[in-house]
Design brief:
The chain is an alpha/beta fold. It is built from 6 helices and 7 strands.
Length: about 150
Amino acid sequence: MSARPVLLVASSGGHLAQLWSLRPWWQERERVWVTFRTPDAESTLGDESVRWAHHPTTRHLGNLLRNTGLALRTMRERRPSVVVSTGAGVALPFFVLAWALRIPTVYIEVYDRIDTPTLTARLCAPFTRLFLTQWEEQRSFMPTAITVGPLL
């Protein structure tokens, strides 16, 4: 029986780049990515196991429902050991379902939000076991977070 995979969930672009920078941590683990099918994501994740999410996610109820279905299928098929995300909106259905299934979740606040939390951080907060920040200043709005330093 193989180890349960790490599920890495992020929008494409900078969110994906920040998760990719954690390669020393995830490279020896089985993993599954969830992101948007964009040229940068296809290029970065060429040899990786990827589930393509639906976008846009901001205020788009149809894609929220599609991504919830994707989360249900992914969790049922892969039963990850942990869900890790840097946001954005695509993370929410995965965090809610992981919480319901008692799968640990780790949310890493993005490096470019220093004064206020992102909407996704606020929405995922009730479903997050561990918050990580990239700047000590971010702990003003996430006081229980652990500062890990900039990922990029």
